[in-house]
């Protein structure tokens, strides 16, 4: 078992947290999919097959794949974890006192696997245990309304926690549909024996920061996208907390368009080698960054300057190579939307990518990057690629 440690985006990947999608995806309907942040209704069996294949590609490259459901089950062996789980998932303001009580006692009576299932897939009013007495809430809700919301976006384990060196930052997720996810990662890292010695870098009750916005460009250098999800206050407070813990010496706060297509920095730019990124061509020349450094206990903010220059300088390299995908704007836009730029490096110069982005992948290969293709026709319906679907826990250090 390897100790948690991550200081780059491309160091050989030894352990990663994934979530095999399940019943929570079956909760998606055309009526709720927008709110639950999916663009289509996934075919769940096929999504599971695609996910199993993704996990297999990682295992074949020596990666230990940790599945969120297993970790959750194991963490729930601790009674404090069970109590925390109930606290995080029973919303008394939504359910009213009676149902909240019934639900709490139900949650305390089921076994760990059943509890984990409820935490992940949620519960509808019709699935609530029967109770004595009349409840207005129960009578007035539609049977298919959620008493506990499902978490279909748990699939994107990247967003709810981030390992920075040997510490874990629990993300403060911006969208209501995803907030409860960090309660689960919080609980896993607090109560699973594997992580009992791990220290924290940032708390879930802070300003919004999502892991998809956090890029570990090099040891001590972290880029944070600021846009639809991570707020300026979130970036600033994560930067402060990393400086205080000596986890970083430079943070680049990178403004990105507040749009669905570019909800996180990793939807437009990911690292594919120690000095190279793949980037959506339309933003290559316009992406900027504010540079943050600690100075006598305060924050020193400079810029904005072009992102590529600021990044190279902070990383102490001559320049950060951009793999020129050379795509025409229409192909580039299509492949960006389908997560063509959202690659997961398993080692320097070796990345996992969706096979459908044929042009982007071809250009990566021309530039000497090895591309491990996976299919994602169903997985991609939530708008996330291989990077979004993985939370690296251990990466070997990069040797110069
Ligand atoms: N790191 C990422 N790009 N994650 C993608 C998350 C997609 C998810 N449906 C959401 O909207 O939140």
TrEMBL record:
Pathway listed: Amino-acid degradation; L-arginine degradation via ADI pathway; carbamoyl phosphate from L-arginine: step 1/2
Keywords of the record: Arginine metabolism, Cytoplasm, Hydrolase
Gene3D superfamilies: Arginine deiminase (1.10.3930.10), L-arginine/glycine Amidinotransferase, Chain A (3.75.10.10)
Compartment(s) of residence: Cytoplasm
EC class: hydrolase
Any single GO BP term: L-arginine deiminase pathway
Pfam family, one: ADI
GO MF terms held by the record: arginine deiminase activity
EC number(s) on file: 3.5.3.6
InterPro entries, A to Z: Arg_deiminase
The reaction(s) this protein catalyses: L-arginine + H2O = L-citrulline + NH4(+)
GO cellular component: cytoplasm
Catalytic residues (positions): 388
Keyword Hydrolase found: yes
NCBIfam families tied to this protein: PRK01388.1
Family membership noted in the UniProt record: Belongs to the arginine deiminase family.
Protein name listed in UniProt: Arginine deiminase
Organism field: Saccharopolyspora spinosa
């Amino acid at each position: 078992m390897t100790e948690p440690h991550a200081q780059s985006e491309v160091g050989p990947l030894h352990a990663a947290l994934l979530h095999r999608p399940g019943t929570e995806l079956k909760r998606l309907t055309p009526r709720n999919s927008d709110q639950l942040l999916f663009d289509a209704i996934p075919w769940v069996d096929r999504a599971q097959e695609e996910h199993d294949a993704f996990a297999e590609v990682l295992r074949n490259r020596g990666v230990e794949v940790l599945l969120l459901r297993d970790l959750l089950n194991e963490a729930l062996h601790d009674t404090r974890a069970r109590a925390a789980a109930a606290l995080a998932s029973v919303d008394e303001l939504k359910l009213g006192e009676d149902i909240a009580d019934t639900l709490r006692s139900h949650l305390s009576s089921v076994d760990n696997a059943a509890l984990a299932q409820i935490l992940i897939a949620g519960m509808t009013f019709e699935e609530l245990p029967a109770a004595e007495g009349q409840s207005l809430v129960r009578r007035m809700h539609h049977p298919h309304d959620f008493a506990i919301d499902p978490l279909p976006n748990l699939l994107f384990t990247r967003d709810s926690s981030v390992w920075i060196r040997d510490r874990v930052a629990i993300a403060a997720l911006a969208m209501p549909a995803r907030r409860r996810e960090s309660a689960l990662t919080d609980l896993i890292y607090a109560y699973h024996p594997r992580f009992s010695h791990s220290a924290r870098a940032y708390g879930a009750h802070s300003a919004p920061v999502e892991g998809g916005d956090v890029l570990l460009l090099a040891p001590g250098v972290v880029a944070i996208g600021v846009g639809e999800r991570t707020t300026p206050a979130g970036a600033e407070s994560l930067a402060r907390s990393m400086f205080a813990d000596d986890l970083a010496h430079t943070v680049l706060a990178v403004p990105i368009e507040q749009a669905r297509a570019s909800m996180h920095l990793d939807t437009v730019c990911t690292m594919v080698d120690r000095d190279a990124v793949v980037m959506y061509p339309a933003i290559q020349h316009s992406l900027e960054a504010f540079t943050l450094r600690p100075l006598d206990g305060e924050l020193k903010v400079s810029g904005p300057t072009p992102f590529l220059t600021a990044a190279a300088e902070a990383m102490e390299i001559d320049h950060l190579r951009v793999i020129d995908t050379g795509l025409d704007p229409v192909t580039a836009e299509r492949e960006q939307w389908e997560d063509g730029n959202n690659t997961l490096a398993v080692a320097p110069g070796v990345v996992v990518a969706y096979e459908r982005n044929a042009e982007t992948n071809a250009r990566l290969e021309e530039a000497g990057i090895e591309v491990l293709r996976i299919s994602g026709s169903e997985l991609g319906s939530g708008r996330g690629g291989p990077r979004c679907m993985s939370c690296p826990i251990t990466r070997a250090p990069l040797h110069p």
